[in-house]
Amino acid sequence: MNTDTHPTRQHILDVGYQLIVEKGFTSVGLSQLLAHASVPKGSFYHYFKSKEQFGEALINEYFANYRQRLDALFSDPSLSGYEKLMQYWRKWIEVNDGTCSNQRCLVVKLSGEVSDLSEAMRLSLLDGANHIIALIAQCIKEGTEDGSIQVKDSHAAANQLYYLWIGASLMSKLSQNTDGMSQALLSTEQLLKGNTAF
Fold first, then answer.
1. Do the Cβ atoms of 17 and 58 come closer than 8 Å?
2. Helices marked H in 41-178
């Protein structure tokens, strides 16, 4: 994760992220987080008013880092819009297959868990996801301009693809394999090449 101007705050976020992607938000108690981070309770409350506020900060930081990685990929001038997007989805499979455990999708992990527990965290997740969809839509638009992508509505296609991949990732957690995401990759290829209504 990013280096914060407050090293202790950043350390708590980094340790908390690893615990939460492994165990879930509600399963990680404050005492467990503090023990793993080796910081006193006072340090936690100096930076976060509550566990919920910590969760918001964690989500916001996750998406800030996610957007940086996506910006770096999508700004590569050597790739077409289609190539950028296909590289992104292939990376998604790697990440959710556990080969990039430090980048696991927090949206997949937390959406169902916290949406009914914390309105603030739900809104942070939704806002972050909407920003990612907007970046995907922009890349699709660039792909239609360079001729590598054949869709009529870039935003509708971006929504459909993101929903498809979130769903495939959830199913892959249930089935404990990447078959669903491999099928999503084929569906993505078809959509971007114009073999759908978009």
1. yes
2. 41-47, 51-74, 81-96, 106-114, 119-146, 154-175
Residue among 180, 155, 34, 174 nearest 112 (CA) = 174
Token pair recorded at residue 111:
């959406």
Residue 16 host element (H or E): helix 7-23
Q: DSSP state, 4? A: P
Q: How far is CA 4 from the centre of its chain?
A: 20
Tens of pLDDT, residue by residue, the chain (198 residues): 444 558 999 999 999 999 998 888 999 999 999 999 999 999 999 999 999 999 999 999 999 999 999 999 999 999 999 999 999 999 988 887 655 455 567 787 788 888 888 899 999 999 999 999 999 999 999 999 999 999 999 999 999 999 999 999 888 888 888 899 999 999 999 999 988 755
**Cα atoms found within 13 Å of the Cα of residue 61, Cβ hemisphere only:** 20
Instruction: Write the single-letter amino acid at 23.
Output: K
Reading the block at residue 129, the tokens are 């996801």
**Residue 58 has which token pair?**
């964690």
Query: Which amino acid, residue 133?
Result: I
Longest C-alpha distance within the chain, in Å? 57
8 A C-beta contact, residue 184 and residue 117: no
Domains and CATH numbers, the chain: 59-192 (1.10.357.10)
Contacts of 30 (CB under 8 A, 6+ apart): 41, 44, 51
